[in-house]
Write a structure and sequence with these properties.
This protein has 96 residues and is an all-alpha fold. It has a domain of 36 residues. Helix 1 runs antiparallel to helix 2 and helix 2 packs antiparallel against helix 3. The longest helix is centred in the middle third of the chain and has 31 residues.
Length: 96
């Protein structure tokens, strides 16, 4: 059996990196907002609504990063396609 190729490091392009960081900073602010809401004794429905918004925002960020990863990996001639597909499946399964 052939030895698996080591996975090269994948980074986001500068444009995607800035967009992801902006989104994460926004999410960070939302989390702080929920902390304040709890400290202030706000209604649980309002808090749940904000938690759902954060979950949706994180799903969006995750999707964007995984899409970038898929585009970068599938075009890499140095890594066998089967290995790349296995890595992508593993990443998607870990994101559930």
């Amino acid at each position: 059996m052939a030895e698996p190729h080591p996975s090269p490091v994948r980074t986001l392009s500068p444009g995607h990196r800035e967009d992801v960081l902006l989104r994460l900073r926004r999410i960070e602010g939302q989390v702080r907002g929920i902390q304040r809401m709890i400290d202030e004794g706000r209604d649980c429905r309002e808090i749940v609504t904000q938690v759902a918004a954060i979950r949706s925002a994180l799903t969006s960020v995750s999707s964007q990063v995984l899409q970038c990863y898929a585009h970068n990996c599938l075009d890499d001639a140095e890594v066998p396609r089967d290995q790349t597909i296995a890595e992508l499946i593993e990443l998607f399964q870990g994101c559930r």
